[in-house]
Amino acid sequence: MEAVKNMAAAVPETGKRKFWTPKRKEALVGWLFLAPEIIGMLLLNVFALGFSLYLSFSKWDMLSGVSGIEWIGLGNYAELFRDPAVLEALKNNLLYTVMTVPIPIAIALVLAVIINNSVFLKSYFKVVFFIPYISSIIAIAAVWSALLHPSLGPVNQFLLQLGIDSPPKWLVDPDTSLLSIAIISTWASLGYTIIIYTAGLTNISSEIYEAADIDGATPLRKFLRITVPLLRPTTFFLLITMLIGSFKVFDIISYLTEGGPNNSSTVLVYRIYEEGFSNYDMGYASAISWLLFAIIGVITAATWKMRNEEA
Amino acid sequence: MQLLGKHLSKSILTLIMGAVSIVFLIPLIWMVSAAFKFEKDVMRFPIQWIPDNINFMYNFKAVWMGRVPFYDFYFNSLKVAIITTVLTLVISSMSAYALTKLHFRGRNLIFLALLSFMIIPDQATLIPRFLIIRWLGLYDTHAAIILMSMFSIYFTFLLRQFMMDISDEYLEAARIDGAGHLRSFASIMLPLCKPVLATVAIIKFIWTWNDYQNPLIFLMSKELYTIPLGITLFRDDYTNNYAIMMMAALSAIIPLLAVFIIMQKQVINGIALGGVKG
Question: Please, how many CA atoms are within 13 Å of residue B6, restricted to the half-sphere of its CB?
């Protein structure tokens, strides 16, 4: 039908071939359909990244307008590695990663296997563990800040009753602030990890387990020899997502400790926020942003490489 | 006999896991219980899980009709989350359609570009995003938050995966009937994608509702605050009034919990889909 119409329309312009062939039309529609996403991508990714790269070599307080941008070369980057707050943030990010990636993955794996194979009411358990994940992290932080109140909080009251004389002061103690945040965010995101693992488990065919049963394999042996190896792709996915996620942590720290006390829970994103929006040092904040981006890039590349080498 | 043993061990494990799940939920149970209490009873130990003296109405009024305009935050959150969700659905489904059902040069290039931009963390472009919003004159508006969250490569890919599995025959049949691309998309493709669109909508709604970072950076006026930002006002305004804080937290969580419980299957499957295909 359309072709007929097109031909009819093309008739008056004799000699010229019609420009809007169906193929060209399809291409135009394709680009139009992609236009919003491409514009967004160009503005918020391409331009934003380029501009922040430029700013990272500059000194600028934003208030002086674009003309006030002053090129200072590598000054900001040199400063990064002398700035105790940034070094502390880097250290904290690494510690936080160690606390919030391997342990939750292990816990979630065990819980997912139990939920998937060995209990009734499977969907009840999935829902329960998932509730904190869908809840506002700020609301959750508010709850935990009451629970972890150093003198009145139920957690420490409980510890006192257990006979622990001087329980940790959690969020207000430099030694335990980061740990407290790690505990809270592990609790909040465990459901996500469990859901991803249970999805991975449904892809393992039950025949493999039946064969192992015939061979008389113990549950532990089946877990270590079948489940864990076959879940490798899922584990890789979680590893990469959670590694990156741990370097992006911000909300909960911003609400609970503002990086304190004494920078004991500060992280890179919090440094970006503070340098950019409290000190208006846009150049320096951009340099920290690029440090963060570089770290995430390296993590992504490294995990992909590991994954491809395995495969 | 063996079957009986299996059932028995399954029952025992269910009981153990049941206990674990209750312990896991203790912080939220405590929150609910505290929201019903008088302030003086909140930190009392041992914990009274079901309080003798109920102060629910007082706490409820303090949150919903008190100094902090929680009612406004609710409305703001609802507005931002709904508009963002609708726009994400439109943008991502159009992109996914073009990436799967339309054939043209450059398509794969765009796909690869999107794929590689997915690793750029929002936080790394925070400063330029802030400047873009200032230059567009959108600072301190809801439009700023919506603009920042409506593009989602993640959901584009989720929809793309789904559309790839939809046979081209449906669209060809429509084309023979004279339907243009827009009609094939809107009246053939979108209805076929209903389940995955519902999943995307719920997850996007939850994420936007809970977003803290964008409102924190792009909003200044209290009357524009969304709920997560509003909760910080309670903390500043009712220092150490935990009963009211817990009522505010409960009020923030309840609507999402309701949506989640009703649509748990879509939410959980949607989250799982991201993992399996990732």
Answer: 6
